[in-house]
Specification:
Layout: E1 8-11, H1 13-16, H2 19-30, E2 35-39, H3 40-56, H4 63-77, E3 82-83, H5 101-110, E4 114-116, H6 125-132, E5 135-137, H7 139-149, H8 151-164, H9 172-181, H10 185-193, H11 196-199
Parallel strand pairs: 1-2, 1-4, 2-3, 4-5
């Protein structure tokens, strides 16, 4: 793996739509484990889905304003994350599921080292690795790779994440349970093995 201080990663919409996966990945990015990238199309996809979910659940307040605040905070934190990309039909993209080719095009435009996605099977990972030297990584595996790189810094990142959970506060056990439910199973097991006092 490329050293984390130079590692550029496109975050697929499916990793930005779920609140906890987005929070974990962007907290690790804020701790300079990697440089996150996305396109307008990726942003539109996950924000549209989030808005629909909020409206379906009748979330108090203006759902659109809440989504806009999340996007504004992400833009402020990662001003270089937006990638201008024009999807063109390239032979190298043909094996990739048609609905996900724009994500690969974003990775090409960003000179990314990896795409992090819950939909690994749609990206023909071996093909992209061989032809474009772009890894396609499941979020849980990606976080575990970062833990292998620098476990102490990941502990610090999770400590910061927990400190933001104030209304109501989350004990470590709650975060572990939510990580497991969100598909970050290895991460939840790792977190559960940590010294609780070190995270509080």
């Amino acid at each position: 793996m490329v050293p984390y201080d130079r590692f550029t990663v496109v975050l697929d919409a499916c990793t930005l739509f779920p609140m906890l996966a987005r929070d974990v990945l962007l907290t690790l990015a804020a701790h300079e484990f990697f440089s996150p990238k996305w396109s307008a199309r990726i942003r539109d996809e996950w924000t549209r889905n989030l808005l629909a979910q909020m409206q379906e659940r009748s979330v108090d307040g203006d759902a659109q304003k809440r989504v806009d605040r999340i996007v504004a905070a992400m833009t402020a934190a990662f001003p270089d994350a937006d990638v201008d990309v024009e999807l063109v039909e390239l032979p190298v993209l043909e094996p990739v599921d048609a609905k996900d080719r724009h994500v690969v095009a974003t990775a090409i435009a960003a000179h990314a080292d990896a795409i992090v996605t819950f939909n690994v099977k749609d990206f023909t990972a071996e093909h992209l690795k061989e032809q474009l030297q772009i890894e396609v990584i499941y979020p849980d595996d990606f976080v575990m790779d970062l833990i292998d790189l620098n476990e102490k810094r990941v502990v610090a990142a999770f400590r910061e994440l927990l400190a933001r959970k104030k209304n109501p506060p989350w004990p470590v056990a709650e975060l572990v349970k939510r990580l497991q439910a969100s598909g970050l199973v290895q991460t939840s097991l790792w977190l559960n093995s940590q010294d609780v006092a070190a995270l509080m």
